[in-house]
Amino acid sequence: MAAPGSDQTLLPLGNLFSSVLSLNLSQLLFPTIAISVLLPLARFVHHDYSDFLALGPGGTPSNFLGYLRISYLRLFTLKDPFSPPAPTHTERPAKGFLRELPKRPQLRPSVAGIAPHRQTTQKPPAYLYQLLRIALYSLVSANSKLLRSGNSCFEKHGLALFLCLCPQCPDAQCHTELLHSGPTHMNPTCEDTGEICHLHPSDSSMHLTLHPSDAALVISQGWGERHPLAGCAVLGFGGRLLPEGFVMVYAPQQESQIGVLKDIVRAAGWWVGGVGLASASGGEGVSTMFSE
């Protein structure tokens, strides 16, 4: 029998101490790992959510549920927003509306977000935003039988231009009750409301839908880029949320650029509705349904 204080007596005590120490280390290890993973994740979500809110109001609610929705949509975005939509050889017509565009002299602005999707640099002074609004309203005035203004279907707020579904309507107001029902546009956008463009008050950029070759020209000349979800199929959302040629056109940096932006808007009206829009008052636009 071992005498008290012998090594054999101390052995069970050592095993017990080792077991307790191992258990304590295990209990400490898992919380440490959890904190090391969750804390950076919480910081990322906090900053990312703040960036989402900083973009301002858009087509998605400015709350955490809206943020979660956008986080899911990121899984389906374009790899390259500067890659134009690929021609399908089934476009009608095969060629776009724009024959040429000048090169935009400025570098491209920084752009962020999905919905909202906004410029974060090169925001113009307020007077240029007002001049652009006036230019859009002048298109409505010059094409009163073809265009109307209203709140954007895509954004749920903000100035948008819509094609009337009945260019033959006798009055020039294009009242809603006079519009035909059902899909009648050549290339429908946003529930076939006929929205051809909308303007963002926060940065003075626009979104609109273009023929593939017009979208390619706008992108190559530095006037815009495709929306991150343009033409992308989204699981659980019933297919594509946005047309292939859904493009952001950058905000004007000088007054002389507003005429270029008006021509791009006219190209959008031509593609969405097959109509030729007059550029200024005194020359009413006409329905020019596509022909080969």
Task: Provide an overview of this structure.
The chain has 292 residues and is α+β, with helices and mostly antiparallel strands. Helix content is 34%, strand content 14%. The protein has a six-stranded antiparallel sheet with strand order 3-4-5-6-10-7. It has a two-stranded antiparallel sheet with strand order 1-2. The longest helix is centred in the N-terminal third of the chain and has 48 residues, at 7-54. The chain is elongated.
Strand order of the largest sheet: 3-4-5-6-10-7
The ordered H/E elements are HHEEHEEEEHEEEEHEE
Mean pLDDT across every amino acid position: 82
Principal-axis shape equals elongated
Question: Could you list the spans in which at least 5 consecutive residues all have pLDDT below 50?
Answer: 166-184, 285-292
How would you characterize the largest beta sheet? 6 strands, antiparallel
Helical residue percent band: 25-40%
Structural class computed from helices and strand pairing:
alpha+beta
- Number of distinct helices: 5
> Strand tally, please?
12
**Radius of gyration (Å):** 29 Å
- For the terminal residues, how far apart are their CA atoms? 108 Å
